[in-house]
């Protein structure tokens, strides 16, 4: 992992909730439709490990997406993400209500987004992260830009940043090597 500035490490250390957008973050943003009209999405298994690791260390995860699909619902279920908000038009309203429910302050939230719909949230929370290939305006407002492009390990990189702010990553990954870690799909 690349050396992070102390201000980013401090922000990452305060995070209790990591929220992911989907298209362009957990996927590469490509929309593929099967012959029956069903959306097909490609997810990265490394991201699954990262999300599971966050949850293993009691860091809450959520997905807030402007779109809805069966593939996304299945992935969220497989990863055990408890806070899922598909077909969301106002991400800030949804996130604000979730923070109230969980008693979490804005400085304890990390949001990972890639397009202009995410800016309203990214400007108000503690740590905003954008993928390497995010829209330029989003990157201009992000606290950190990942080395990974959307759908290519962004969530894993975010997990490494959050967990690495708390402990050596080798220590964090010990839990991923345990047999019970594999009980949840990635």
Automatic annotation (TrEMBL):
One of the GO biological process terms: lipopolysaccharide biosynthetic process
EC nos: 3.1.3.45
Transmembrane stretches, start-end: none
Pfam families in alphabetical order: Hydrolase_3 (PF08282)
Cofactor (UniProt): Mg(2+)
Family matches, as Gene3D superfamilies: HAD superfamily/HAD-like
Keywords (A to Z) from UniProt: Hydrolase, Lipopolysaccharide biosynthesis, Magnesium, Metal-binding
Record: residues binding Mg(2+): 21, 114
Stored InterPro entries: CMP-NeuNAc_synthase, HAD-like_sf, HAD_sf, KdsC_fam
Residues where substrate binds: 23
Entry annotated with the keyword Membrane: no
Reactions catalysed: 3-deoxy-alpha-D-manno-2-octulosonate-8-phosphate + H2O = 3-deoxy-alpha-D-manno-oct-2-ulosonate + phosphate
UniProt keyword Ligase, yes or no: no
Molecular function terms from GO: 3-deoxy-manno-octulosonate-8-phosphatase activity; metal ion binding; N-acylneuraminate cytidylyltransferase activity
Purpose: Catalyzes the hydrolysis of 3-deoxy-D-manno-octulosonate 8-phosphate (KDO 8-P) to 3-deoxy-D-manno-octulosonate (KDO) and inorganic phosphate.
Protein family: Belongs to the KdsC family.
Subunit structure, as described in the record: Homotetramer.
Protein known as: 3-deoxy-D-manno-octulosonate 8-phosphate phosphatase KdsC
